[in-house]
Amino acid sequence: MAQENILGTEKIGKLLFRFSVPTTLTLIVNSLYNIVDQVFVGRAVGIDGVAATNVAFPIFIMSAAMALMIGDGCASNICLSLGRGDDEAGDNYFANGIILLFLAGALIFCGGLLFLKPMLIFFGASKGVIEISASYTSIILWGIPFSMCNMALTAIIRADGNPQYMMRTMMIGAAINLVLDPIFIFGFQMGVQGAAVATIIGQIVSGCLALAYIPRMEHIRLHRRNLRLQRKLMGSIFKLGFPSFCMQMATAATQIVMNNLMRKYGALSPYGSEVTLSCYGIMTKLYQIAHAMFVGLAAGTQPIHGYNFGAKQYDRVRKTYGIGIKASLVISLFWFCVFRWGGVFIAAIFVEGESLFLEFAKHCFQIYMLAFFLYGPPQVTASFFQAVGKPGKSLLVALSRQVIFLIPLALILSDSYHLNGALFAAPLADALAFLLAMILIYFEFRSWKKSGFLVENKDNYEAIE
């Protein structure tokens, strides 16, 4: 007999904490792979090494985009299926997701090796760092399929009700990377290659641990009879996972555009292209930690939204969204303070004794993160629309900050104001994305009320049973 699903019965605040915190820690640990590499590389190789690993970073984001499209799309369909009581459909989605995950990992690995240097030049590599970056990336690609297993299975295992397991596997992989980095970089004097080797060993271990959990699933099962791709199921996975893919690809596109702007206008500034590339790279790595908290929070709301929407418990959906928004604003304000007043001290951890580097780092952090206190709500809103089966609105919100606002503004403003123009595009994009998300969610819940899903009772919304 199937177990009662806590997504429909447990207190929402408790559920959100249970699902968000492990997922957040998992994503932060995943981000730490590249950050730890950059700290050790910065100490061993200097600014050129930091710039080189920064140029390689879009390959991580692109692989994450593929993994999250499959993982989040699969998890969303599983949650909706379980909410409707259709366990067989959940099993079918899971099997198709696993096949797609392995195919995507092979595609990124082979494509990366075949087009390595042209890809890095496109990512913004200058002549001074292209060889170092190619040396680093050619090794990193071997761990990408395992890293993708981690990211995709995080969403699926979270939908099954055990986000803590993936947190532990990620932490094991990160601990391995942390221990091996100084051994390979300094002990064996391997430089950026040592950092890459340490990273892929950690990724392989945590990836294998993630795969080992599959037979232990509680609410979904992987059956051999389901291991065949079905066009309808793939379409549904891609449909609900596409916003996650676009959000990550938007991050990669932003990184590529900004890398090229830093290289172009940095060469015209007193700082030079390597300094601007490395400073922007460090800032984006720290941004990834902050972003991981919002993605973790949004991902924690997703199974609660999806299950209860499928079960027609609309009051729990509305309440979950409200709690998520409040939490996102608190986290946004916290990170705004960190970036505003602590950025230069953090940058000094990566590269020391370089006054020009630290000068631009302070300038970069304070301008780029000027409106970060508004960053969180659009993330929660995009996840909400994805979970309730409205990928169009989810996609619009997910793409708004980076693709619709930031990239065009950066290109336009940098033409007149160079480095400062590119940096000021970010706070403008944050404000506009926040405004768009709030407008869309206002009209969404108003339509729910008109349709009879919700009625207003005092200050709270309740479902019509």
Describe this protein's structure.
Strand 1 (454-457) and strand 2 (460-463) form a beta hairpin. The chain has 465 residues and is mainly alpha-helical. The radius of gyration is 22 Å and the shape is globular. The longest helix has 61 residues, at 391-451. Mean pLDDT is 84; it is low at 456-465. The protein has 14 helices and two strands, in the order ααααααααααααααββ. It has a two-stranded antiparallel ribbon. The chain has helices at residues 12-44, 47-83, 87-114, 116-122, 130-140, 144-160, 163-187, 191-212, 231-266, 273-310, 314-350, 355-368, 376-387, 391-451; strands at 454-457, 460-463. 81% of the residues lie in helices and 2% in strands.
The percentage of residues in β strands lies in: under 5%
| Biggest sheet character | 2 strands, antiparallel
Helix and strand run:
HHHHHHHHHHHHHHEE
Strand arrangement in the largest pleated sheet? 1-2
Shape, per Cα inertia axes: globular
Tell me the total number of β-strands: 2
Kindly report how far apart the N and C termini lie.
Answer: 26 Å
| Average of pLDDT | 84
Structural class computed from helices and strand pairing: mainly alpha
Rounded to an integer in angstroms, the radius of gyration calculated over CA atoms is 22 Å
Number of helices: 14
Low-confidence stretches: 456-465
**Residue share in helix:** over 70%
